[in-house]
Amino acid sequence: MKRPCINIAQTARHLAGLVLLACPCIAPTTYAADVFKGKDTYQTYCEVCHGSNGQGSIPGTPNFTRGQGLLQPDLALYNRIESGKNAMPAFQGVLDTDEILDVITYLRTFF
Ligand code: HEC
User: Fold this and answer.
1) Ligand 1 centre from 98 Cα, in Å?
2) How far is ligand 1, taken at its centre, from the CA of residue 34, in Å?
3) Which protein residue has the closest C-alpha to ligand 1 atom 40?
4) pTM of the prediction?
5) Residues 35-107, CATH architecture
6) Where are the domains of the chain?
7) pLDDT tens digits for the chain (111 residues)?
8) Which residues contact 83 (CB under 8 A, 6 or more apart)?
9) Nearest to 110 by CA among 48, 78, 63, 40
10) Ligand 1, atom 42, residue with closest C-alpha
11) 46 lines ligand 1 (CB under 6 A)
């Protein structure tokens, strides 16, 4: 007997392949941190205390080049920058989500 022209299983596989290929186009865009914007934000808001080299310019600041204060997950750093710590001011309402994510990426370049 001659095989049918349309093989259902094969067609289904092809359709599934098409859906997979199309996925990147229909998936929501994710935000990729921009280290250059992070540097701008750092120079505007952080450098006065943390120094242009990340080693700290006032007493009590961590030395980022030694990883001080940076050995924690991004989410913890994010919360820290938003809420502040002792002499470190809170940046909630000053920096938006993207600016904080960018500045975290920049902080990590010191270590
Ligand atoms: C007024 C000075 C000042 C400014 C401005 C400042 N910081 Fe800080 N920051 C500090 C001090 C002081 C500490 C140490 C706090 C402590 O551990 O008591 C600190 C600590 C930190 C830490 C370590 C937190 C931890 O969990 O130990 C990070 C990360 C940090 N600052 C990031 C930033 C970023 C990013 C900015 C700019 C958006 C910024 N800081 C602006 C003074 C400042």
Assistant:
1) 18
2) 20
3) 46
4) 0.80
5) Orthogonal Bundle (1.10)
6) 35-107
7) 566 667 766 766 665 555 555 555 555 566 789 999 999 999 999 999 999 999 999 999 999 999 999 999 999 999 999 999 999 999 999 999 999 999 999 999 999
8) 90, 92
9) 63
10) 88
11) yes
